[in-house]
Amino acid sequence: MGKSFVTMAVCPICRKETGDLLMDTQVRDVFERYTMTPEPCQECRENYLSHGVLIIAPETNRIAVITDDAFRRAFNMDMPEKKIAFCEEPVMDWILTKPEEETPA
Ligand SMILES: [Zn+2]
Q1: 49: closest CA among 34, 36, 37, 67?
Q2: Using one digit for the tens of pLDDT, what is the confidence trace for 10-23?
Q3: Measured torsion, CA atoms of residues 85, 63, 91, 31, in degrees rounded to the nearest 10
Q4: Distance 41 CA to ligand 1 centre (A)
Q5: Residue 45: how many CB atoms within 10 A of its CB?
Q6: pLDDT tens for each residue of 48-97
Q7: Cα of 31 to ligand 1 centre, how many Å?
Q8: Residue 21 resides in a domain
Q9: Considering its fold, how many domains does the chain have in total?
Q10: Whole-number Å distance between alpha carbons of 1 and 9
Q11: Are residues 74 and 93 in the same domain?
């Protein structure tokens, strides 16, 4: 409480540093001196989000990338802004266990 840390932002997909320094006052999601942000790096944005949607379960930091089509089929809703959506753990389980051809390694 009241503590703040400067951490290096890391991409949620490839876990590489995005180059952004973050002042994290929440002390949330901090592992070592890196903080996972919901903002993918430029490379992953181009590789995955140009035709897919990043799904994040904030509680555990688990992520999945599903195709635009799969997203529409699964959730029956419009594309989220910035192609990033948050979900509950059970939804993540469901996404990760269902067969999906274009899941990134
Ligand atoms: Zn990345």
Answers
A1: 67
A2: 898 998 888 877 77
A3: -100
A4: 4
A5: 17
A6: 999 999 999 988 889 999 999 999 998 898 888 889 999 999 999 999 88
A7: 17
A8: yes
A9: 2
A10: 21
A11: yes
**Count of alpha carbons within 13 angstroms of residue 2, beta-carbon side:** 0
Helix (H) or strand (E) holding 84: strand 84-86
DSSP H helical ranges for 1-105: 42-44, 68-75, 89-97
Protein residues near ligand 1, an ion, with CB under 5 A: 11, 13-14, 41, 44
Ligand 1 centroid, distance to 100 Cα (angstroms)? 20
Which structural domain, as residue segments, surrounds residue 25? 5-36
Spacing, Cα 56 to ligand 1 middle (Å): 14
Ligand 1 centre distance from Cα of residue 55 (Å): 14
Q: Whose structure tokens read 């509950």?
A: 88
15-24 contacts at long range (C-beta below 8 A, 24 or more positions apart): 16/41
